[in-house]
Design goal:
The chain is α/β, with parallel strands linked by helices. It has a domain at 78-259: Sandwich (Immunoglobulin-like), CATH 2.60.40.10. It has helices at 31-42, 76-87, 272-275, 282-285, 322-326, 348-353, 358-367, 423-436, 453-471, 486-493, 498-504, 512-528, 566-583, 593-596, 611-616, 620-639, 643-656, and strands at 115-119, 139-142, 146-153, 180-186, 189-191, 194-197, 202-208, 213-223, 247-248, 254-259, 297-304, 334-340, 414-421, 442-448, 476-482, 534-538, 588-590.
Length: 658
Amino acid sequence: MKLNSRRGSSPTIAYYNPSRTMALGSFLLVVISSLILIRQESGYVNRSNSQGAKWTDYVNIVNNNNKYNNSSTTTVRQFAKQQSQHMNNQYSLSPGELPGYTGWSRPEQTLAGYFDIDPLSHSPTSNNQAQLLQSKYHSIVKSGDKFSLLLTCNHNNTIGVDNDIDEEPPYECPSTGGTLFYVRAYGPAVITGLVTDFHNTSYSIEMQFIDPGEYFLEVVTTFSVPLDYDEFPLLEDDIFEPGYEGYMVGDFPITILVTPSVVMQDDSSLPSDEKDKPWCTISQLTETSPQSALYKGHWQVIDTVARLSHKPLTPDETQVSLDGYRMGLNSVGVRMSFEYEQCDLIHIRDIAGGLNGGLDKCLNDHLGFHIPQVSENSTQGDWDSNELPDRAMISGDGAPTNQTNVYDENNFEGVHVIFIGDSVMRLVRYFFLRLVGGSIGFKVTLIETNGGIHATMSNVTSTLEAIRKREEGKRIKRAILFNSGLHDIDILCSSKRKSTREKIDVIGGKSCEDSYREAMTQLVHVLNEYPAMLKVFRSTTAGWQKYGNYGFSWGSDMLQPQSRSTHLVYHFNTIVFDVIEKLGKNIYISDGYWLTLPRPDHTQTSTTNEVGKHLVHPGFEVLSVLARRWFMLILWGLCGSSFESCMTYLSSQSYSLQ
């Protein structure tokens, strides 16, 4: 019996394959969330004034980076000592400390049990120090090395089958491949990997471990026999999308030991210039391909509640709160920080140090603006109130009204930051506003694409034109961050949105991928000609993650369709990369996909935890990275050679507050 499939060939995988073209609703960052986030990133809390504290109270930094010397030899004694140290990492996660299957309905039919595992690298038997280790490790990997293994679908695999009965397993492996997977490893860090489909029943999995320690690698079958992307949307009512499975591949999880690449050295003995990484450059913060972001950084575990080393961060650790749940303190009990491998992202501490005039001084000194300086006690609006609108308010002529700390529209000069995107972009905008809220040299506008770029293109173009006319001749520099993806995928591709498609007539007989390419090509042409100092497309975040996503009630009789999956998100991102590479003029691309793919455990939560928002909106650890990276890109794009001077000034201001 073959696995149920309505066609003769299997689809390609949603990640990279070498044979085809590369190709949360409500306001999250209320005051207490912002305060706790500063504590989270600085490692300090003033418990005597924890509820009424200000950002500038939280300025200490915790440096968790491991430093190694350049020794090329490792003695047996040193090796054994290092394993003891890293296997007992105080923050390292143990099996079960991150959620896996959390209750979604899934089909009984799956190929999860049909795969053989073969190492492509780093087998313990090839390691001359393996005798020092317990046999529980599937592989031993050096920090920084690429680890890979091979999965082969084998319907003749008889493990678990009663050999006394002359009966084959119920399903056959598609001869041309096509199965889709989710990959996650956790220990001292949480990372994901790259899956390659060889279209012959074999798949490779590649990933890179940085932090030494013990990891647990999970490979999850998401769709055994998915549809090809060009088959969406389904036009016939009697054809159904495959449902998300989320079964662990047989023999997983496996345990991997990551060893230091060189002998570890006490960080205190290193010169200060060797301890600190340089600021991330614009090339390190932007991408050249759909996969280039994968190995640029990773999520490092910085705290676990269930450890002796944990220090309480909430005002009353005996109670629970929505914000504590959002941060992991009252939920999964894990906090993480995203670390770039070769550079440093600006810390919230540094931006906080630039509030009350510091940012404006940088704009004046390095960009030639004449922004009036505000006193230390001056504010530009009550950021704890509801004055900040929930969405961009568009006036009759299509122009956005004042939305931020700009109260004198006619006399404003400075940086106009324009966000174009959906509800995820709105959340990034909120976080960005928290970062620059003390500056009067930043104006922020959101142009929404909720409903997809097809439905909102006219509003985007008319609003941009209204801004251009209103600001013509003024001392204003514009920076644009744009995205349109999740709404487009859902409306153009999903079987559940058929009536919406018919109502607004956005497909016109084309596949959803062709329709999306057409719309994004039009948007890129508009932005090519628009006057702005910086234009960046942020790739679509990994929405609709099921495995590892927790904290809400799944419908017990509803399948999770393939069109609402990370695989389609990745495929749509490859389309935009292709469009911008071929047609874009000075448009950068920053990553949203690989940043969010390892973090299904960290999405938007609310008191009711609506399924839709919880599946597609990232949590604030992710939002913090997106907002701070955008802040640095703006400084790079506008300041150029003056970037280092401005960053040095902001850092000095933050340290002067201590």
